[in-house]
Amino acid sequence: MCEQHRTEFALQLSGAGRRGVRSGPCKPAEARRAVERAVAARCRAADTPCDADALSDALLVASELTTNAILHGGGITDFRVDVLEPGTDVRVSVCDRSAALPVVSPPVDQQGRHRVGGHGWPIICRLAHDVRVTDLPAGGKCITAVVPLS
């Protein structure tokens, strides 16, 4: 898991992330657009410029979370993005059908060949200052990452 970040496992009591329920983006590009809209709206409301590097980090985290849910989690069952008050962080939550926890793959396989991919979870852990994995009552999990915007 994220060795440098707190990762919490808890039971989510709401109905979010139920199997077969899709709300929000189902593709990484749609997730990035949702994050971009939420952050831009916060910047307009606060009448402050958005930090392009911080936004880029948040977009990458959203993209990696959704990609991992599609590739390893059986698909996205729920997606949420919130800009936290006072607007210094963005919280991205992606739920999927798998109860399996994220793992870091070794960079090389047993034959010593370099693996393609396997960088998503380390990227998420590096860019987010809080990562939580929540078991869902109907099965599956929800991963929430909080990325600083400044």
TrEMBL record:
Highest taxon above the source species: Bacteria
Keywords recorded for this protein, A-Z: Kinase, Serine/threonine-protein kinase, Transferase
Pfam families hit by this protein: HATPase_c_2
Endpoints of the signal sequence: none
A GO MF label: protein serine/threonine kinase activity
Keyword Kinase in annotation: yes
Record-linked PANTHER family: ANTI-SIGMA-F FACTOR RSBW, ANTI-SIGMA-F FACTOR RSBW-RELATED
Name assigned to this protein: Histidine kinase/HSP90-like ATPase domain-containing protein
The organism's taxonomic lineage, starting at the top: Bacteria, Bacillati, Actinomycetota, Actinomycetes, Kitasatosporales
